[in-house]
């Protein structure tokens, strides 16, 4: 069985459609369970969840309230409450393709041993993309498209939190999410997914990209503002400082940051030559904000 863990915080606008995308799965309802973790929402999240459970008795839907604020706390609660052999994490503003569970089950039946995995994430845009947005910033929208073939996440690549999963045995081997990392309420800290998947890689466990494990992730207008990107970038920097100081790799990460500056300047001049100045300038600003969070 596949446990679909959905951690939510004040997303009453998107949660009904997200839950409906799970309800509409073209598969046997016994193939999966929903583990929904409410991370102390102050809106109508609880009412939405309880109504969904009442109206859909054929679905194995389990609702929990996690009082410790923070995405890592919520995900860990989801892990503890899951009964499946495989655990999938899907964001509360991501909508599953109707064949999501069926296709994922096919992939997993072919797998051997413990593994991590992540799927394709396409944007569900609520507005036009700004002129300064480039493919190098697409990960900030939690977008990932590595093509239509199964492949390994190699090197420093890893799945994105809106659509990722592991076999249950992985948790026994590497532990759960680092609760000192990750978003808390409205804070923009992150790094818990990177820390989690890097530990999986260090344990020698493969991490696969499954293209038919597809979700569409909502990109609201506020997420495409310069102010939001600034807070997100600074949060990345601070999270990297916390993560690497704990692992003793802060110096290595600082050297890598200097290397990234070199790449950023190269991209800036490429966009300058192409006449796409705003894209190049935003990359410079983005790198500066990360560095400020890392070294500040």
UniProtKB/TrEMBL annotation:
Protein name: Glycosyltransferase
GO molecular function: hexosyltransferase activity
Organism: Vicingus serpentipes
Cited Pfam families: Glycos_transf_2
UniProt keyword annotations, A-Z: Transferase
InterPro entries in the record: Glyco_trans_2-like, Nucleotide-diphossugar_trans
Origin: domain of life: Bacteria
Domain Glycosyltransferase 2-like: 3-174
Gene3D superfamilies given in the database record: Spore Coat Polysaccharide Biosynthesis Protein SpsA, Chain A (3.90.550.10)
Transmembrane segments: none
């Amino acid at each position: 069985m596949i446990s679909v863990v959905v951690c939510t915080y004040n997303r009453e606008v998107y949660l009904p459609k997200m839950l409906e995308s799970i309800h509409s799965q073209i598969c046997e309802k016994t193939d999966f369970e929903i583990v929904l973790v409410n991370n102390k929402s102050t809106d109508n999240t609880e009412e939405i969840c309880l109504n969904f459970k009442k109206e859909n008795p054929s679905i194995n839907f389990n609702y929990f309230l996690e009082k410790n604020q923070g995405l890592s706390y919520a995900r860990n609660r989801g892990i503890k409450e899951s009964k499946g052999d495989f655990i999938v994490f899907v964001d509360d503003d991501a909508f599953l393709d109707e064949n999501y569970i069926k296709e994922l089950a096919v992939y997993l039946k072919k797998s051997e041993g413990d593994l991590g995995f992540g799927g394709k994430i396409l944007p569900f845009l609520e507005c036009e993309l700004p002129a300064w947005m480039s493919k190098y910033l697409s990960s900030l929208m939690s977008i990932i498209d590595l093509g239509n073939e199964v492949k390994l996440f190699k090197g420093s690549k890893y799945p994105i939190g809106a659509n990722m999963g592991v076999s249950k045995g992985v948790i026994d081997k590497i532990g759960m999410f680092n609760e000192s990392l990750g978003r808390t309420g409205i804070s923009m800290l992150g790094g818990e997914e990177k820390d989690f998947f890097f530990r999986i890689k260090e344990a020698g466990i493969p991490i696969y990209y499954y293209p038919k494990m597809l979700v569409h992730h909502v990109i609201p207008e506020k997420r495409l503002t310069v102010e939001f990107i600034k807070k997100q970038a600074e949060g990345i920097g601070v999270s990297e400082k916390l993560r690497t100081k704990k692992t003793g790799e802060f110096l290595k990460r600082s050297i890598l940051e200097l290397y990234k500056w070199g790449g950023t300047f190269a991209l800036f001049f490429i966009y300058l030559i192409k006449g796409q100045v705003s894209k190049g300038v935003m990359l410079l600003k983005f790198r500066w904000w990360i560095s400020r969070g890392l070294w500040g």
